Amino acid sequence: MTNLQTQKPKYTLQDWQRGYESQPNEYDYWIDNIEGEIPKDLNGTFFRNGPGLLDINGQSIAHPFDGDGMVCSISFKNGRAFFRNRFVKTEGYVAEKAAGKILYRGVFGTQRPGGWLANIFDLKSKNIANTGILYWGDKLLALWEGAQPHRLNPQNLETIGIEDLDGILRSGQTFSAHPRIEKGKDGKGDILVNFSVKTGLSSIITIFEFNSQGKLLKRYSHSIPGFAFLHDMVITPNYCIFFQNPVSLNPLPFLLGFKGAGQCLKFLPNKSTQVILIPRDGSKEMKVLPTQPCFVFHHANAWEENGEIYVDSICYESFSQGDLAGDFREVNFDAIPEGQLWRFKINLSENNVEHKLVESRCCEFPTLNPNNVGKANRYLFMGVAEQLSGNAPLQAILKIDWLTGKRQVFSVAPRGFTGEPLFVPFPNGVNEDDGWLLMLMYDAAENRSDVVILDARDLEKEPVARLHLKNHIPYGLHGSFTSHYFGE
Ligand SMILES: [Fe+2]
């Protein structure tokens, strides 16, 4: 039996907090401090985006989600790895760097200094480009769901500018940070599926499907009633699936300068979560079905099986404004519900949705073999807490084998902190778990970050390699991998 919880002492809040110190510097170097060996057949570039600044010249931002996007690239070639990081030179980043102070309000509560009078009716939003990173159709895009992407030069990570995808995105149109990639079948290339949301009293979801050269194949829109906070989506061969969280938005405190827009969300525990199924053939037969009230940022995967649709999602039992109040560094983990993995079974002929808890351990950032996106997956990987129950920082990676029920854990507790793992299949992999897991982790003992390469077949083995960076990278959000090499 696997020992799923090591007997390591618990983390300290001080250690965890240090991983949220700003990294204002930009680096380029070969990584030369390595434990283990980088596989010679791991070739390509691991990109990762996340907030790089948690303060502007000493003025703290209110929440990491408001932090300026900083993209890292770790490029692998012939057993070596080259590290680079660059801020996305957004209009807001450049202006605040020049001014040496906060000039913009953030969605998650960052305010201009000077109290509410300095913020009232200031509805300008800062496109912080901090959430996702995608290399598609020869373009590297830093994604933030509130606005258009920024295009970067993949070779040096310098910012080229706001990107409209060859005229497809209108000025200011949003483009989600959670695209899904459907692997090509029948000799066809991969398809990128992403979405845009315009929300208010009702909401319009627009789906875009692109071929592997970045050419738009399809665009279709649907309107749904009510305000919609839609961070993520899952796809199957026939559907795009969204969960509309049961939240309302009272914009008054935002308009009056007291709160960020994201702090004006109110969770409605007596209202259902709405499962929205949008057919990918462009027909108007959208379906909306109620299910258990819960709050979802991230889905793991969805698939169709025997006429039913399954969705695995990380659900929070609530989402309170209190989660976004005060200094995020002083968070009381015990006071906030943890994310847990739920499985939803959607029966379209009976119009009902069943749900069950499938993993109770505190988890986030699910990932799987990219070849299984939209199809049944045997294996799932995600960041988890070291402790088996309750809310805590992510300090381990969990592998679940749905076929056998077996769980495996790779832990960096007590002084290490994990985030999103990324699955990169072996070049000639056969089995679904034939691949590496790549991740950036923060090592509080050394105040630096490591790039960790795990053998996804067996998380209990020592890491394949642990690459010690010369610097720390604040906890980040999402990454992606391309087989193109963009190192020195
Ligand atoms: Fe996300």
Describe this structure in words.
The protein is mainly beta and 488 residues long. It has one domain (13-482): 6 Propeller (Neuraminidase). Helices cover 4% and strands 41% of the residues. It contains three helices and 35 strands. It has helices spanning 13-18, 91-99, 252-255, and strands at residues 28-30, 33-36, 44-51, 55-56, 59-60, 69-77, 80-87, 132-136, 139-143, 150-152, 159-162, 180-182, 191-199, 202-210, 216-225, 234-235, 239-244, 247-249, 265-267, 273-279, 287-291, 295-305, 308-316, 340-347, 352-359, 363-367, 379-385, 394-401, 407-411, 416-417, 422-425, 435-443, 448-455, 465-468, 479-482. Strands 2, 30, 31, 32, 33 and 34 form a six-stranded antiparallel beta sheet that branches. Strands 1-7-6-3-35 form a five-stranded antiparallel beta sheet, with no helix packed on it. The chain is globular. The structure holds fe (ii) ion (FE2). The site of fe (ii) ion (FE2) has 9 residues, from strand 22.
Percent of residues in beta strands? 35-45%
**N-C termini distance:** 45 Å
Q: Just give the CATH class.
A: Mainly Beta
Name given to the CATH architecture:
6 Propeller
What is the percent of helical residues? under 10%
Radius of gyration: 21 Å
Structural class: mainly beta
Gross geometry: globular
- Which small-molecule species are bound to the chains here? fe (ii) ion
Total count of domains: 1
User: Count the strands?
Assistant: 35
* CATH fold-level topology: Neuraminidase
- Whole-number mean pLDDT: 93
- Please give the largest β-sheet: 6 strands, antiparallel
Please give the count of helices.
3
The quaternary state of the protein chains shown equals single chain
Low-confidence stretches: none
